[in-house]
Amino acid sequence: MSDYNFAYLDEQTKRMIRRAILKGLAIPGYQVPFASREMPMPYGWGTGGVQVSAAVLCPEDTLKVIDQGADDTTNAVSIRRFFERTAQIAVTTATADATVIQTRHRIPEEPLRDGQILVYQVPIPEPLRFLEPRESETRKMHALEEYGLMHVKLYEDISRHGHIATAYAYPVKVADRYVMDPSPIPKFDNPKMEMAAIQLFGAGREQRIYALPPFTRVVSLDFEDHPFVASKADHPCGLCGAQDSYLDEVIVDDAGGRMFVCSDTDYCAGRQVDGHRGSDNKEYAA
Amino acid sequence: MTPLLQVKGLTKTYGRHIGCRDVSFDLFPGEVMGIVGESGSGKSTLLNSMAGHVVPDAGQVIFDTRDAGPRDTRAMSEPERRMLSRTDWAFVHQHARDGLRMGVSAGGNVGERLMAVGARNYGAIRASAIDWLDRVEIRADRIDDRPTTFSGGMQQRLQIARNLVTGPRLVFMDEPTGGLDVSVQARLLDLLRGLVRDMGLSAIIVTHDLAVVRLLADRLMVMKGGDVVETGLTDQVLDDPQHGYTQLLVSSVLQV
Ligand SMILES: Nc1ncnc2c1ncn2[C@@H]1O[C@H](COP(=O)(O)OP(=O)(O)OP(=O)(O)O)[C@@H](O)[C@H]1O
Ligand SMILES: [Mg+2]
Ligand SMILES: [Zn+2]
Predict the structure, then answer these.
(1) Is B111 in the pocket of ligand 1 (CB under 6 A)?
(2) How many domains does chain A have?
(3) CA-CA-CA-CA torsion sign (A267, A270, A276, A277)
(4) B111-120, B212-221, B247-256: which range is least confident on average?
(5) Is ligand 1 within 6 A of the CB of residue B177?
(6) CATH second-level architecture of B5-101+170-252?
(7) pTM for this one?
(8) Is A243 exposed, middle or buried (0-12, 13-18, 19+ CB in 10 A)?
(9) Do A241 and A130 fall into the same domain?
């Protein structure tokens, strides 16, 4: 018997969060305020995402948690354990087997399907914050659809770097209405957001929830003469040889040797099980 | 001819204090109206009430819109009013930092209004920015610098460029030359006069510097204690003031 209610939060709180989620789904990209609860982990550890997950989890769910694409980082492991203990639910690292996936900074490579929910941890939900610190003003800009400022940010990028250098948290326009911060996923992941699964975004410290129903139109902002490009490192994965997955550059030895590997560890492992090998793979070299 | 702006019975109080009281006048296309008066006479209150920055207690501010002719801006919806203030209207603040984004480059500052009305071609936005920097005598190679690296006079000129880039028909200015060195003021005034003439701008300029209105304004309103005490053609009012207060204002300048 656990000391907690199922998934830690009391039913009252979960109902309040579910109402915020439903409102978010009804108005895609709109930031719905909610009364964030103290969680037994510090802000910055995904308390917003954890509360959203807690509100949507059912006993029959299977949970996967990733941090930067990996299932085995401290943050991912501790959140997974948290729900194992407080909800006694099944957990997995396999994207295809999960019904709920909580993520920080990535969308899995394997396309998500109908019936799955992707929960994002969001540090700063307001895409306009960078140039307009006044909350009263940003709220008005959203209400009146005044988004010129978002392009000022991209303009500044190009004027400084010669191209749009924003690589993470690349702003999108949702369902032709709200401009939304997709959380710090790489812009490589932006096109995946038009997906079959439900996407929920939770910001704990800022007390905001927003959402995308399946197959919502998600357009990355750009200029006619500087179009959006979902770029990634121009390499195949050193371990599985994938050409189409987002890569991390990792240091592999004391001599400063580097290689590029899939940031999605489950995807990479699955490909290797299927017999794919990259040029840095020891089994391949052997 | 239809006036570009008709102000009728505009009144703004702050509790028991009067800001401005029962002000009415017409502004015709291409006309520049000066508003003068001592500190606290209600110039800024009147300007901000017309521009929609403060909500007046009574009165109408009727603007001859491009699409629908004369409309009371106070009866417009907020989106309409905000759209107007980014397109056909412009507001130049006394302190450039109130009218600029200090964390954004000069080019971004000038381009913002264009992007706000849907410009999505970087090259075209940049070309406009360079053109406007040139018109306000800021070198093109400063386009990527932030206004924090600009002198006071340059900041003020940048604010003007940022406001005029969308080709507004009416410009509100509150002490546009205030707080600048005399020589810098003169250059800015020259520039403003050129722009007003070339673009056929209509403008309402608040100042307590009679030299400014002498140079820029076709007509003049003199304010005291929230009331307009005298109006007329600028030269007439300055050379032959009728109201005792105006006579004082004019003579105090002549003494300097
Ligand atoms: N926000 C406010 N709250 C209360 N009173 C105000 C406010 N703003 C202005 N006033 C008062 O309204 C009157 C007119 O002020 P206003 O700022 O319009 O004068 P002004 O002619 O622009 O003066 P200045 O030349 O010093 O800028 C003054 O008595 C002032 O104290
Ligand atoms: Mg004033
Ligand atoms: Zn791989």
Answers:
(1) no
(2) 2
(3) positive
(4) B247-256
(5) no
(6) 3-Layer(aba) Sandwich (3.40)
(7) 0.91
(8) exposed
(9) no
